[in-house]
């Protein structure tokens, strides 16, 4: 963190990016919804293809048709429910107590060197529950939002705010994947994969009949098979990757750290390098230094931190995640405890 010395803090320049987005007009905001509308359109078309073209026009056995539709709608409901929760759940915003007052910001600007700036931030943050630091061992400060970043929080340039436990910003849901909706996002990927696999498997027998000419050719059934297989192939790797991250208690931003390790080492003398790669590195703890597994508490505890401690609700898209998104237990600081979520 570095600010120019000997001048007043430019409050207008550091106004939230969200305010600048408002001035861009409704056109930009509408375009952000195009990926969501595309997904909704594909789901709507697949419903027509499976229910009308396949189940009613092609399947002749009544019992088989009923079983097809019952399981299909059960998976579809969970799929759409998870997707809705992922898209429309509000992002986790940083509480007001982390915002640096204007007087403190002016003191930081008037500081004569970076060491003095660091001491001012450390003094302000001493009552805040933060254990991670920047590469130069200072408190993590966001110049755009004018706040001390809680552990695992990062600034999202699309949303224009700092977000609690930010994993990444996903254009397909037009939302940040973060502490508040990470469970929904994983369930969305899982149910989407199950949906695609079920649809593909259900259409395979009729694909053979189409090729052999035993039933009339139906474009929707043929296309439904290839589209479901294509999406299933894409989803299986993405779903598996995020299950892997959950079990290790990491995030996408944290996982990218290994790619930029050498970049930070080669440019560690330059302040701007900290600002560019701050979000893409292994968390650095105040005591203990860098540790990519610093938040890992064991696979079961890591899973429960996201999905909760009630197994009956693990696969239901309702909020059950433990904690508040601000304080996270560390393996070498305190053992995991259910009371942490209270």
TrEMBL record:
Q: What is its main location?
A: membrane
The record ties this protein, via PROSITE patterns, to:
DHHC
One GO molecular function term of this record is: protein-cysteine S-palmitoyltransferase activity
Q: Where is this gene product found?
A: Membrane
Topology with respect to the bilayer: Multi-pass membrane protein
Q: Give the stretches traversing the membrane.
A: 33-56, 62-84, 184-207, 219-247
Q: What is its EC number?
A: 2.3.1.225
- Looking at the record, the residues that make up the Palmitoyltransferase DHHC domain are 140-255
UniProt keyword annotations, A-Z: Acyltransferase, Membrane, Transferase, Transmembrane, Transmembrane helix
**Gene Ontology cellular component?**
membrane
One Pfam family here:
DHHC
Catalysed transformations (reactions): L-cysteinyl-[protein] + hexadecanoyl-CoA = S-hexadecanoyl-L-cysteinyl-[protein] + CoA
Q: Which family does it belong to?
A: Belongs to the DHHC palmitoyltransferase family.
Q: Present the record's domain note.
A: The DHHC domain is required for palmitoyltransferase activity.
**What name has this protein been given in UniProt?**
Palmitoyltransferase
